[in-house]
Design a protein that fits this description.
The chain is an alpha/beta fold and 551 residues long. Helices cover 39% and strands 12% of the residues.
């Protein structure tokens, strides 16, 4: 058998380029003879030949050099691979990051259409990790509007919080129309709208209750050097719409991570809202500058409360090193002062775009973080004075109920309310090309989001979720969400072993830490005594181990 020379038999991977060349030649001949429609062929094949020639000559993509033209088919398929998976391959219960079942439920409740399901559960109830709530033989009736918690009862301006609210999302991360719809929905539904750390924009001032989040950039209350400005804070915090102040120490999407808003995105409107120069890069430091120690942080809380006219002030954090949290609690005990509430943000991520490693592997998941914060406050004798909220991938009534069973007084959601606005989980929040007009600053894309319609859906999602929660609590024989405890939720450890949350988790008794107890809990045993109110630094013994690596 004879073989043709290598050059006489080009590999098939060059076939698209070769056929485009032949097509261009044929169309050029046809155009010279007959003219007319052949011009379209020249244009199409000419563009393909130009693309193939570029592929062969460039040096950045080896695949394109080896597969001119054809490689772009791969790149295009790869670019909408997540959509193919989401719409055609993903099962109804597979959470990546939210399942089709979760999204469909939110859409239905937001639109006020039936959310009922036929033929039983799609979940495997005999599989490890399955959880359920225990019903009672003496059910009760609960009005959804009664599911509220008072925060800052000893303050001049206490606030009655709905047990389900909009978590922190800034103007800048979300479009103007999205913020407007969220605020209108919060006003209509009687729940609060957390501003996020991007300050109070004009779109937050539509009548909805606000929790003003103060981040390390002090947007809306910063001086020209980027530090905290008490007079600007006083002016904004005393607005009637601002019901509570929340100091953001860290967030679940990217704990311990600051950020930069490029100058090109700092429009006149955003600059005015955040109190920064227009067209210049805006840096959010990873840490606060108004305080550097736990004791200074408690002093800062007291100062903000006074400036705000004695409104409730709290903190929000994604938990990391336990000794840092213990140091904060010890500072509360030493000062005789405390935040009015603590929001625990789970490490499950959130609306903020972040490096993949931060999303997947940085920050304590919500369950563990909430348990640690709740137990610490109970053990330190502070739980009856400090309210506790939780946020982290909560979309339905059972999510809220199980989180309350672990210690939360109320829950917040960000992505759930984004779905209510029409988010389709395209996961392009950081590209400014959000197809649903929610997470974008493109004025054309954002303007397509109809504010009155989406506001009704935000309010509808909240109302119908609370109605489902009220029914669940009533079925368990309870009269209010505050009665919900760890004994009401069960967890399957294996096919033959089931534990209630009360049996599965260790819970401290009131004042146990003050009495020198909690020796049965390794985290408290190892770090409570060595935590100090005057520093966030690790215990000295741990520092010595770090220096030596002799763990």
């Amino acid at each position: 058998m004879s073989y043709l020379p290598h050059l006489a038999s080009p590999p098939l991977r060059f076939s698209a380029y070769g056929l485009s060349l032949l097509g261009l030649i044929a169309c050029l001949i046809g155009l010279s003879i007959a003219g007319g429609a052949w011009g379209w062929g020249v244009l199409i094949f000419g563009l393909l030949v130009a693309l193939g020639t570029y592929d062969l000559c460039q040096h950045g993509h080896t695949v394109s050099r080896n597969y001119p033209i054809l490689a772009h088919l791969r790149y295009n398929l790869e670019s909408f691979g997540p959509e193919i998976r989401q719409y055609f391959i993903q099962s109804d219960t597979e959470e990546v990051p939210f399942s089709r079942e979760q999204r469909r439920l939110i859409y239905q409740r937001a639109k006020g259409v039936s959310d009922k399901r036929p033929f039983g559960s799609l979940h495997h109830m005999n599989h490890t990790g399955y959880e359920w709530m225990s019903p009672s033989l003496t059910p009760t009736h609960i009005e959804p509007d009664d599911l509220r918690i008072t925060v800052g009862a000893e303050r001049t301006h206490p606030y009655s919080v709905s047990v389900f609210n909009i978590s922190a999302m800034s103007f800048g991360a979300l479009s103007a129309n999205a913020i407007s719809a969220l605020n209108d929905g919060a006003r209509e539904g009687g729940f609060y709208h957390d501003t996020g750390e991007g300050a109070i924009s004009p779109y937050h001032r539509r009548g909805g209750d606000l929790v003003w989040e103060i981040g390390s950039g002090y947007f809306g209350c910063r001086d020209e050097a980027g530090g905290f400005d008490p007079e600007r804070f006083r002016e904004a915090a005393r607005q009637d719409a601002v019901k509570m102040i929340e100091i953001k120490l860290s967030q679940g999407a990217k704990p311990g991570h600051g950020g930069i808003l490029p100058g090109a995105k700092v429009t006149k409107e955003i600059a005015s809202t955040r109190g920064v120069p227009e067209g210049r890069d805006v840096v959010s430091p990873a840490a606060h500058t108004a305080f550097t120690t736990p004791r200074e942080m408690v002093d800062f809380i007291v100062r903000l409360r006074e400036l705000a006219g004695d409104k409730p002030v709290g903190i929000k954090l994604a938990l990391g090193h336990p000794w840092e949290w213990f140091a904060i609690v010890k500072a509360m005990l030493e000062a005789g002062e405390h935040p009015d509430f603590v929001v625990v943000d789970g490490g499950e991520g959130g609306t903020g775009a972040a490096p993949l490693e931060f999303i997947n592997h940085l920050g304590m998941p919500l369950n563990e973080a909430l348990l640690l914060v709740h137990n610490t406050l109970v053990g330190a004798g502070l739980r009856d004075r400090v309210r506790l909220a939780a946020a982290g991938k909560l979309t339905n009534a059972f999510d809220i109920a199980r989180t309350m069973a672990l210690g939360a007084d109320w829950c917040n959601a960000a992505r759930g309310f984004m779905f209510a606005l029409g988010c389709i989980q395209a996961r392009s929040c950081h590209t400014d090309r959000c197809p649903s007009g929610v997470a974008t600053q493109d004025p054309l894309r954002g303007s397509r989001l109809d504010v009155p319609t989406k506001a009704q859906r935000v309010a509808g999602f909240h109302a119908n979720t609370l109605a489902a929660l009220a029914e669940m609590l009533g079925a368990a024989g309870l009269h209010h969400s505050s009665e919900l405890g760890p004994e009401h939720v069960s967890h399957r450890l294996s096919r033959h072993e089931i534990r209630s949350f009360a049996e599965l988790h260790d819970f401290l008794t009131p004042g146990e830490l003050l009495a020198g107890g909690a020796e049965h809990h390794p985290v408290f045993r190892d770090f409570w005594d060595s935590a100090r109110a005057d520093t966030f630094a690790p215990p000295e013994a741990l520092l010595r181990l770090r220096d030596s690596k002799l763990y």
